Amino acid sequence: MCRQTPSYAHLIFHILEGLPETPEWTTCVMVTKAALPDQNSLARFKKLKELLLAYEAELRRTKSLLPDQALYTKGRRGNERRQESTGPATHSVLRVRGKS
Length: 100
Description:
Blueprint: H1 8-17, H2 23-35, H3 41-63, H4 77-86, H5 93-96
Helix pairs in contact: 1-3
């Protein structure tokens, strides 16, 4: 981004818009947007990370996923067969989509 650090408001927007468009994540985004405090962007960003980490942990328990298994993967249809044969992807939503 032209050597400019993105603002916390931009990070919040990109995190929320970059999540999967599944029913469970759509609901999470709606609830999360309502739960973010009406404070400065840094406080909102910290709260967003906290809420998403908690939701991710709950999804992992519900789906019986190990910590190193991805909740979802993005790819073309041709890649689905290859992903199944090589095993699950190993990344976390927040490690891919925001500051650690």
